[in-house]
Input
Amino acid sequence: MLSITQISKGISDGGVDSIAVVLLAVYVLLVVLMFLGLSSILRQSRLASRARRDYQRARGTQHLRQIRDSLKILSQRLHSLEQEKHRLSSTLQRLEQERTDRLLRALCRHIAETQLTQIDGIGPKLRDRIIMYSFDGTLRSLRGAYRVRGVGRQKQRGIQRWVEQRERQLPLLTKQDYPNKREINDEYDQKERKLRKTLKEVEKEIDSMSQLRSVASAEEERLSQVIVAHFRQAYGQDKEASEAVDQYLQGTFAEWAPMPPWFKTLISKYGG
Output
């Protein structure tokens, strides 16, 4: 491409060359476009840099970071509490089953000790041997009494019939009084009261933390809607973006406004 000096020289020499004129015009136009393009690029670069800087310094960004960090800790502790709740509930179920088993064994022992001699041919001594060597706390175990010395085939058949009768009566007998029933119930009532009290406290804490997480998550979602691009658009006189940025600059609460109770609780308890 000819330089401006060369083109000008050609013109000044009197050789009006239309091609040279066109080339000169194109050259000037390219220079102008390059200058305008570079200026636009520089302006956009400065605008983008300003938008990133202002976004990072914005009150909304600071609050968003605090909320996100606190929510992580809150969720971890909430998960631990949910596990504790499950453990306590399982322990309560296990205790209730233990209570039922112990009550049933106490009843069966009482029945065996007081009624086994009702069977023909079984006196106190044989009864005691049967209980010692055959009874495991359930009436069903007495079906193996034939292994005990002194229990023949006839007595075993008598024991078998007796066991079947008493097993059918168990649902009714469990409602009646028998030795150790009150002591067993008192023991497990005490254990269960303590567990239920602890469980209730855990459930209350879970409800409180879940509500806090719900509010904080909603605010996190709201703040996360504004990004750096909104700042660039706002600087470009975009009205909608400007409104969003204005709200974002105030954050969760304006600098002159009182701190919301939920935010104070979130940061003080779970802000690390």
User: Anything to note?
Assistant: The chain has a mean pLDDT of 88. The chain is about 80% helix and 0% strand. The two ends are 67 Å apart (CA to CA).
